[in-house]
Amino acid sequence: MSEATTSPDLLFQDEIRAAVRDAYRALPAGAGRSVTDRFYDRPELDGLPASALDWALGVGNPVAHAALQRGEVVLDVGCGGGIDTLLAARAVGPTGRVIGLDTVPEMCERAERSIRDAGLDDRCEVHVGDMEAVPLPDGGIDVIISNGALNLSPRKSRAIAEMARVLRPGGRLCMADLVVDRELPPAVLASDAAWAGCIAGAVSERVLRRKLERRGFADVTIEHGTPFSVDDVAAYPLFPADVIDLMHRLLPPDEQGEVATGVVIRATLAGMPSRAEVDGSGVVSLADVAPASAEAPGVTVRPLKQVEDVHLKVLDVEPGGSTPFHTHVHAHEGVVMTGRGALRLADGRHPLAPGDVFTVTPNAVHAIEADDDEPLRFACMDCFVE
Ligand SMILES: C[S@@+](CC[C@H](N)C(=O)[O-])C[C@H]1O[C@@H](n2cnc3c(N)ncnc32)[C@H](O)[C@@H]1O
The domain 284-383: what is its CATH number? Predict the structure, then answer.
């Protein structure tokens, strides 16, 4: 690129990217157990390779909040040494898939080694790549998790747009990251360590929410969790002693206890019909809804039923009956019209009542059960999500 077309801002962004990459490449070791001891429960770490624990450099535990289901396809953005990739791989089971993405090849190699050592290479893969240009096709991911990575991007809107591109409609995002209320002193902000350590790139909760909503994410929740003090920050190997010392000297004592706040950010990519959209939309073709999939004793399939202006497939499950266990290759969504019952998934029985909208993730084996003395009547809305 010629000098005339290089904006100072882009140059600045390139410098940040290079500084972040160099900082992670240069790390001789991870944070030991300080990150795992703070954010993970011991039992969930049982059986994971020691190196994955020692290289945990995140700021939370996104898998604990992501409600991952068997069979889901997960992308771990900025996977680092792979601790969350491994936990996600356990959660999605052998029919699921987890893709780790990191811009630093050394981190990817560590993640790959941990995956092999954990015996999870049947469902995991790792790619070297940048979150601002994710090397994956559109719409193939059910859930994106990320832990302390978005703040490392100097173009967060671009990284969020990439997340929206690779997620399927209705896909979910669950990230642990840091937010800030106050600017840090310029001398701290200008240090490479503050960028690599997720602090200089942190934005406020309001800005983060707006960026997500602008890129098509809905139901954005930002759950406040953990204050990060100067001493907490010092536990990460990314911060050399002189930067910590600078923070101690330049920050007023009342600000040293919380230089940033760890949050869990959850959002859904718009695209699945909401109840309101279903009620208000036009006639929908039922051709794609497998008509035989729910036929069984006690189950009546009634192909067409007018619900306001929408044609839907309505199933009646007789009291005590159950639809056969079956799967869909896409997300399966339904709305309960009358009766009480439950959605049965591998992880248990989830009660359903009139008015409930339920979603089953792609390929999840499930059945719908009735347990009241009137049939459970629900409408499949799969035809909306093709
Ligand atoms: C704070 S570490 C967290 C690693 C991991 N998520 C964990 O919890 O241990 C952030 C990771 O993001 C990676 N990273 C930084 N910039 C990136 C980018 N632009 N694209 C993808 N990964 C990036 C770093 O190499 C590093 O491994």
Answer: 2.60.120.10
